[in-house]
Records
---
Amino acid sequence: MRTRLEKIAIIGVGLIGGSLGLICREKRLAGSVWGHGRSESNLRKAVELGLIDRYSLDLREAVEGADLVVLATPVESIIKTGEKISPFLRENAVVTDVGSAKEKIVRRMEEILPRNIRFVGAHPIAGTEKSGPEAAFAELFQDRYCILTPTEYTDNGALGLVRELWEQTGARVDVMDPEKHDRILALISHLPHMAAYALVDSLSKKEREFPGLFSYVAGGFRDFSRIASSSPVMWKEICLQNGKAIIQGIEVLRGALSEIAEAIENGNGEKLEKIFLNAKVIRDGL
Amino acid sequence: MRTRLEKIAIIGVGLIGGSLGLICREKRLAGSVWGHGRSESNLRKAVELGLIDRYSLDLREAVEGADLVVLATPVESIIKTGEKISPFLRENAVVTDVGSAKEKIVRRMEEILPRNIRFVGAHPIAGTEKSGPEAAFAELFQDRYCILTPTEYTDNGALGLVRELWEQTGARVDVMDPEKHDRILALISHLPHMAAYALVDSLSKKEREFPGLFSYVAGGFRDFSRIASSSPVMWKEICLQNGKAIIQGIEVLRGALSEIAEAIENGNGEKLEKIFLNAKVIRDGL
């Protein structure tokens, strides 16, 4: 980055926060990288793994004097953490987050944080099945999108700093308003999760009629339902934070399912083949 | 098998037919294993790979004198092939198939084939992304279910023979009526495919609104949509063959999606978490 920072504070040193810390340290983006979290053993591990220089269990100490604070807690705690750190931040500090739904977080942060603190919403679209500091690695964000979601209140200097930070990770940085981000994420990420949850739920409802139903499942179902094993708490929170866009997505999906059912009902093989082929072409092109 | 057969004829020597042929040869289940198909180069390859002893491009020659004929063509050709071979079969020959929808095939076969030919429907729930004789291997069916679907007209001796054949492959043989098979498969296999196709279709409809939408897709969507790259022709045919059960499945899935949308609408986090957790527990238990 053009300007080396004095202190970066990462709140929540798990897969995302830990990987970001590791990159900041490896690239010497700051004089020191501090971590904060609830579990001391995790924070100690993070220091051992070189993800952070040091940690504090005291939120005030962790963020005090930081040029840049990254809120990398689970999405449901981001706003709460923002409220807590607000009184301890130094003037002109830049605060950013990594939450996977943006509109509610960004709007609320702009209400919570005083005018002399500069907030920039961000969402690195990266992740693995694993979590925790042991899962962190420096290539996590390489060639993945990181979407920044400035608003009419966002400071340009802060936006530039957060952009530089994410460019340093190897991510492809994209910028759009929070609402557009949420609508796109609802479609490409949240909706597939809802579909997988709904599918497993559907089968679970049918199991009374067909005992042992799940014992027959084949590869297709297994692959499809893998994402249904994601954290229920996290997904509940994403649903509540991005409700409107997810509901809209569900309606589109229900419509697409009806269209298929109707084509089957009418014995319209041509239409079915067209829908399936279109999907295959798109899928194979990914 | 208790009785060594003289001649087994496999019509369609691809992944399924080829793997079955390989096992029949390795275990010396028959004096000779014949193959038939449309592509001579594929059949020649199948002989080279040891999947069959010999082949004929003439359907009559391929099935003539066979004790057991296995229809392993794509699902849309099974009935047609049954009609074609009918006049050439020897008395008391056993005919079986590997189609993934059973009711229409089984009922139609019972109409087509004369009384002195014994038909038994079967469906090995196995497969890989690959197809063709090169993809065949002897462990394909190991520990997978193979569902046999006898009816009131099925000959017990023939059922026993087909059961023995599939037990030799290492498959877990299960027996149920064709209608139940189709309803279970609609849920565990056909419905996930419909969901994946519908999901990709939904996003494709939204792409006009969000150009470049697909460039943002993350791992979840990729895994989920993998099955949307299956053969459109095959899935069209499965839909037409198992329409009623698939439509029922789609209705259950649409209901489960509505339930989630409603819980989001009502801000009912508790209900969302319960649905997601239930799905996770089931998924993790697979």
---
Amino acid sequence: MRPITEEKMAEITAFMEEKKIDLLFLADWENSRDVNLRFLSGHPMDGFLLLTPGGETILIPWDVELAKEHATVDTIITDPDSRTNFEQYVKEVLKSDSPVIGVNAMISYRWIIALKKALPALRIYDNPIEVNELFRKLRSTKTPKELAFLEKAGKIGNKVLKDIEKFAKEVPNGTENDLSFLVMKKIREYGAEDNSFPSLVANVERSHLIHCHPFAGNNQFSKPGLALIDFGALYQGYASDITVPISFGKLTAEQEKIKQTCFAAYEAAIDAIDIGVPLWKISQAAVDVIEKAGFHMPHGLGHGLGLTVHDAPGVRQKPTSEEKLKDFVELKVEEGMVFTIEPGVYVKGAGGQRLENDVMIKNGKVVVYTKSKPLEVE
Amino acid sequence: MRPITEEKMAEITAFMEEKKIDLLFLADWENSRDVNLRFLSGHPMDGFLLLTPGGETILIPWDVELAKEHATVDTIITDPDSRTNFEQYVKEVLKSDSPVIGVNAMISYRWIIALKKALPALRIYDNPIEVNELFRKLRSTKTPKELAFLEKAGKIGNKVLKDIEKFAKEVPNGTENDLSFLVMKKIREYGAEDNSFPSLVANVERSHLIHCHPFAGNNQFSKPGLALIDFGALYQGYASDITVPISFGKLTAEQEKIKQTCFAAYEAAIDAIDIGVPLWKISQAAVDVIEKAGFHMPHGLGHGLGLTVHDAPGVRQKPTSEEKLKDFVELKVEEGMVFTIEPGVYVKGAGGQRLENDVMIKNGKVVVYTKSKPLEVE
């Protein structure tokens, strides 16, 4: 079943009519994922999707049987070699000899090259970023059914919080890998199909990294200082994303400042959320706190949650350059939006702290539906 | 430390000189990964890499601290906002006003759009597929150090084979998820940093799917008929990839034929491997067996293993269309190559079988260094 609503589908075809786009071409393959394929078709992964301005959908899947089980489209191409000769199916659908094909800006360049080779007279719609932004806007609000899945993914995450606390307090010799593994185990026990991403587990020596590498190691987790774990659950394909900042033992003045700044930025951001508020203003509220304290946040404040863990909408700063402002689409908080708030402060040598919870706008209310809070262990 | 050798680096810069490419531009970001960034720089993920024809490397990382710990490059850009204004660093490196920039065909189209906006006079080198093929060729042979990591990843996988056999025989009520979880646990116990991908575990009802979705479910695994598990270990960033075909109980004649055809195709492929043999001929040997039996294999026979689980070289059919033949680079089996052999036969209703092992060419010998074999459970 496809997650997109009829109304949103109509927005896409109206956009195509207006921009004189003859065909929309989506590609989702390993190393170059486009969740819009699943959003528009229900097909989980690996394939091409063609959409005409009349709303006709043609799926060219890698795995035909998988498509038959999951996709809601008008046509499934069942040719088992369609992956390598997809261009012929594009040709068949097109009526014009010099068609305009719309693509998402995130598409792998290889497909553009292949299309141009097969159809030398085609033109790629000249503003693929606009296509990307349209999809992001449509994905930025969720249906009640999607909200229910997201809430469930959040609730599973909440249950794991207790296991993390217990581990931090009662397993002083435990490693990052031990905690990562515990979370993986518990998350499935509580009904998730999987982690929504590999947990990032960083002790004081690694917590200054935004995304530590490897994601977890054989280091003792509870060394004195600032640590964190960033994890999430996947439920029916929908993701939660939670970070717990943890401090072990007595902190230095610098560590204390990092910690307090992070939490103050979090509070400021949560306070700034309200229906109708531009998302960048929420980011600004957190960034103001962090910069006033003399730090710099090296990543965005938050991101949407949905069929991908980094979904629309982004909760980031407004661009400063005029060039980037041209492509900037200001989204405001509205019913059905779901996003993370996750300010972080990182200092090499001292460590980092990030506090992250998931927020949804449901029945006119702002609901912080995950329950992470700073954890202090003696 | 960067995995690429000096000799291979020199091949890239010689290519740039010959093709008059002023700058090579690589991008590795979520949803659009390019392992060549890590291959050329040692930086694990998330960033841009610029390479000049003189061999100068400039890394624009998302996480500066991560880069400092892992990268071997001439310059690391430490501007924390470099992700959003990377174009200025490209401009700074270029001497020409109308430069030619080389990209990998796999790059996300968004970066091409951004570069063209920032540098309207630039030209993208008109054969990005050639760039991609050059990288693939260079990554298709491994150094002795890389071979040692790959072998270790394979050995960890071999240990897990015994656990899979035990589970299949002794846990009749176990689910796909139970087995997936067991593998995840054991793989870490045996020293892997992680699975190299989420295990695909399919009972008879799902084994006809090439890549089942979800990867594992709460279905009983040992239902009578054809099942399989496809899994791998990650060691120091290097992947193994193994599939065990399992049959439970008495098979139907059709199931028996699927099984025998898959194994015969595997034997034919292994027999065809020899130094100097074009890789497509190994694929042809397996495909001949499968097609003679009246089946069609809906995926390639095998793929390289390395820093990514689907690395170079591909072990696939030679293209049949003249257009695709133009881009086709025939690689032959040579010292240092590492690839999977994984023929599969799939029939909806009856199920599927795939047998997969990892092969390396080391000291002039063909070594099948993983030990999967068909498993039969009464």
---
Amino acid sequence: MLTLHHLEYSQSFRVLWLLEELGAEYELKIYERDTETYQAPPELKKLSPLGSAPVITDDKVILAESSAIIDYILDEHPDSGLRVSPDSGNRVRYLFWMHASQGSMMSLMLMEAVFQILISRVPFLIRPIIKAILEQASQNLIKPRMTSLLKIAEADLQLSKYFAGDRLTTADIAMVYPMAAAKDRFYLDADYPECNDWLVRVQQSESFKSAAAKDGRDSIVLRV
Amino acid sequence: MLTLHHLEYSQSFRVLWLLEELGAEYELKIYERDTETYQAPPELKKLSPLGSAPVITDDKVILAESSAIIDYILDEHPDSGLRVSPDSGNRVRYLFWMHASQGSMMSLMLMEAVFQILISRVPFLIRPIIKAILEQASQNLIKPRMTSLLKIAEADLQLSKYFAGDRLTTADIAMVYPMAAAKDRFYLDADYPECNDWLVRVQQSESFKSAAAKDGRDSIVLRV
């Protein structure tokens, strides 16, 4: 049986949601972050080839990397309809959001998180300089790219309720973490009503709610 | 016909290589970076929804995001063998490297590049402080993760010549850019003989060489 090794407040929530949406049988192990460093505990680091979550174990398979795990689970459930097939008119949108989630949005949100951690950790006396430099970098490098992505998201969600058409797919499941992080970091403001509606809508789905109940935390993203 | 909008010294080289490997018919447009900011020129920014390369246009389709483009092109060439199918024993490795390329390695290499740019741009007087802080962050946050990834890569390449088995797949094509960047940033040292051999081997393939000839640059990665 597949075991999901889930780290609280982390990207692995998406895999938990996917498993709930599929009604799959699985075992769930939840790990807590170190309260000072926010890092994964040693037992998860030892297990995961990336030293982080999510990681799944399934017989002899040990697999890390959110999107690889999503694809692996989709392979096991070929009739789920959660992966948009190449002959569908929604395939291009599906591919874009599945990959933009990790390839662009998470990479920007990770940089934003690293900047915040750096600002909070540097010695008090030089903090104003570091803060000014990193906030400038965030304005120049992160914000324009996030804005471009959110504008495309807003336009796509005007066309249909979900990222790849009229029903939930793993494009939505992949996107929920960076979108929740974007909301948390104040990127997802009133300029993006469709994105905000989508975030509320998916969080109210039965499968998300049962995943959240198993997770047992008040947020899916880490708040530093 | 598909047009690849390729930015010099950028991730879009991978799409160029893929098209050459497939022997596909396509049009190539090459864009030059701004010599001061290294950014893409305005005409590419206008075209690409992410303001960056690669982007492809194909009839009514405009698609950005390297891995999404790779999947889109693979859909058009279902018999290429470059995408490992779900029933193959190499599927898990294929999924891991296809997604780890953008989800983990490029995201770390991007952060490294941003740190380098920040160090080079801050006023001279505070540069030593910034350099110390960002190099420390690189040591703590980037290096351990890159080392984990490269160790897995080294172990996988001991098992077979390519990332997903004995023949070239898009896992290799996706990985060439972060691996070349890792080499350029001195991560890929003598501790990783298999990785270094792989990098030489793929660069000597006919399709890579013809892509490099069309690209016309001496490096695929940007050197700041």
